[in-house]
Amino acid sequence: MSKKITFPRGTSDILPQEALLWQKLEQESRTLLGLYGYKEIRTPFFEETDLFARSIGQTSDIVQKQILNLASQRLDDKGNIKLSGLSLRPEGTASVVRSYIQNGFDRQENLSKLFYIGPMFRGERPQKGRLRQFHQIGVEAIGPGAGSPYLDAEVIALSVNLLNSFGLNGFRLKINTLGSNEDKKNFSKYLREQLNPLINDLCGDCQSRFERNVFRILDCKSKECKTIVSKIDLTTGAYLSSESQEYFVKVKAALDDLGVDYIEDPKLVRGLDYYTHTVFEISDASLGSQDALGAGGRYNNLVTQLGGPKVDAVGFALGVERIMLAMPEIQQEEHPTIDVYLIAGDEKFLPRTFKILNTLRENKFSSSMGYKFASIKNQMKVANKIGARFVMILGEKEYNNKTASLKNMSTGEQREISENEYIKVMKEL
Ligand code: AMP
Predict the structure, then answer these.
(1) What is the rounded CA–CA span in Å between residue 68 and residue 88?
(2) Which of 24, 148, 250, 268 could be disulfide-bonded to 176 (CB atoms 3.0-4.6 Å)?
(3) Of all residues in the chain, what percent carry a pLDDT higher than 70?
C-alpha cells in the first residue's frame, strides 16, 4: 500500500466545522475595519525575494532564517537548478507598501487605510501556536497624512477593539517608542556601549545580534541575556530627541482619552528593521511560550526605502490562530440546515428529481438530494442527519400523478402536492 499523504508539518486543514468560526471572525473584522475606514487589499502570496530583504531587513531573524524561497526546477546551461528569486510572503506590510507604491496611491489619496486577511509563511520550527503557514489580520495606514500621533493611537485602539470583538479581554498591551532614525542610531550606540563589556556572557544568538540587530538583544528570551538586559538603564530615554519624546506623550494621551489600558515597556523592540517611533505588542499569558497575539507600530522610512515617496505609515498584524487559541471557549458554530432534501424512489425517477432540485434552488430554497439511488428508508436517515426541514419524495405513485410527497420533518406531517405547486406551497411554509 502506498504511503498516506498528510498536510505538511506546520500547516493544518481548516475543516468545514471550523471554517464557520473563521468566517465569523473574518466577518466581525471586516465590519469593525470598515467602521474605522479601512479598505481591503489582496496582494500575491509570493513576491520577489528582494522585496522582503529590502523591507524587513537583511539582518532580521525573518530574512536570515525564516524566508521560504520558491525554487524552480529549471536547470540553467550548466545543469544547475535555478532559483527563481521569489519567496512566500512572511508578513503583509512589505507587500502592501509595494502595492501602494506600484499603484501610485499617494497620487490618489492623502491617507490610504488598507487591511488584509490572509496566510503568511515562515520556515519556523513548529510548535503550539507557531506554524509555517498561519494567518494574519493586518492594517496599514500610509500616506502624507499618516504622521499623526492620533493615528498611532487609533491603530493601537483598533487592534484592541478587534480582539475585544472576538471575546478576548485577558491580554496585555505593551507600548514603547524607538524614536526617529537618528534616535535609533543613538539608541543602538548606547546599547552597544552598555553591552560591550558583557558580550561574552550573551547567548550565541545575541552575540551575533550585537552587530547586526542590537535591539533584538532586549527581547531575547534566554535567562543570561535577560539578566544582563535588566541591568541596563533604559528608562531615561536619553537617546530620544525632544520631538520624539513629545510625539510619544501625545500618543499616550490619546490612548488615555480612549480608555485603552497599556503598559510602557522600554525593553519592547520589534524584530523588524523598519520600525520607528511607536511600537506595540499584545500578548496573552494563557498562550504559554508563543504568547504574542499581535504587534505593530510606525514605520516612517519603509516607503522611501522601497523606492516610494516620502510618506509616513503605521500598522499592525494580529495572528488568527493565536486568537483562536486564546478564545475563552470556542462555541461550535452550526452549519445552517437545508430547506429540502429530495428522494427519488427509483432509479428512473432521478432525472425528474434532479430537475425539481434545480427549480427549488432557482427559487432560493437550499436543497440537496440523494444523487445515487438508495432505498427511501436509507435516504430518510440521510435527510435526518443533515437536518433537512422538509423531505420531498418521488415514489411510483407520485411519479405517475406528476406530484411529490412533501414531509415536514419536525411535525411528521406529509402531503401530496402537484408539480406546478411545489414552489407556491414551499413559499407558504
Ligand atoms: P509578527 O509579524 O512576527 O509581529 O507577527 C504578528 C503576529 O502574527 C504575532 O503576534 C502572532 O500572533 C502571529 N504569528 C507570527 N508568527 C507566527 C507563526 N509562526 N505561527 C502562528 N502565528 C504567528
Answers:
(1) 6
(2) 268
(3) 94
pLDDT tens digit string along 313-346?
A: 999 999 999 999 999 776 677 888 999 999 999 9
Q: Average the pLDDT over 111-120 and give the result.
A: 98
What pLDDT does residue 308 have? 96
Residue 380 and residue 317 share a domain: no
| SS3 (DSSP) at 240 | coil
308 contacts 97 by C-beta, under 8 angstroms? yes
Q: How many Å lie between the centroid of ligand 1 and the Cα of residue 283?
A: 11
Atom of ligand 1 nearest to the CA of 294: 10
Provide CB contacts within 8 A for 69, sequence distance 6+.
49, 83, 86, 87, 88
In tens, the pLDDT along 361-400 reads: 999 999 999 999 999 999 999 999 999 999 999 999 999 9
**Distance from the CA of 9 to the center of ligand 1, in angstroms?**
17
| 370 Cα: distance to centroid of ligand 1 (angstroms) | 44
Among 277, 298, 326, identify where a domain stops. 326
Measured CA to CA, the distance from residue 283 to residue 274 in angstroms comes to 21
Indicate the top mutation candidate among 89, 284, 290 to test ligand 1's pocket, ranked by most ligand atoms within 8 A of CB: 290
Contact residues for 174 (Cβ-Cβ < 8 A; gap 6+): 262, 263, 264, 265, 268, 280, 281, 282, 283
Return the closest-CA partner of residue 327 out of 25, 5, 14. 25
For residue 140, report the distance from its CA to the centre of ligand 1, in Å: 16
Indicate whether 202 belongs to any domain: no
Nearest CA to ligand 1 atom 17: 130
* Residue 420 binned pLDDT confidence (cut-offs 50, 70, 90): confident
Please identify, by atom number, the ligand 1 atom nearest to the C-alpha of residue 319: 12
CA angle, corner 67, sides to 9 and 200, nearest 5? Answer: 100
Question: Are 149 and 110 part of one and the same domain?
Answer: yes
pTM (2 d.p.): 0.90
Q: Would you say 141 and 151 are in contact if contact means Cβ atoms under 8 Å apart? A: yes
Examine residue 8 and state whether it is found in any structural domain, yes or no: no
Cβ neighbours around 427 below 10 Å, total: 10
Ligand 1 proximal residues by C-beta, below 6 Å: 91, 122, 124, 129-131, 134, 136, 292-295, 317, 319, 321-322
Quote the mean pLDDT of the chain.
91
Distance (Å, whole) CA 361 – CA 131: 40
Contact in structure between 405 and 343 (CB atoms under 8 Å): no
Looking up cell 519567496 gives 87
Q: What domain range is 127 assigned to?
A: 16-180+241-326
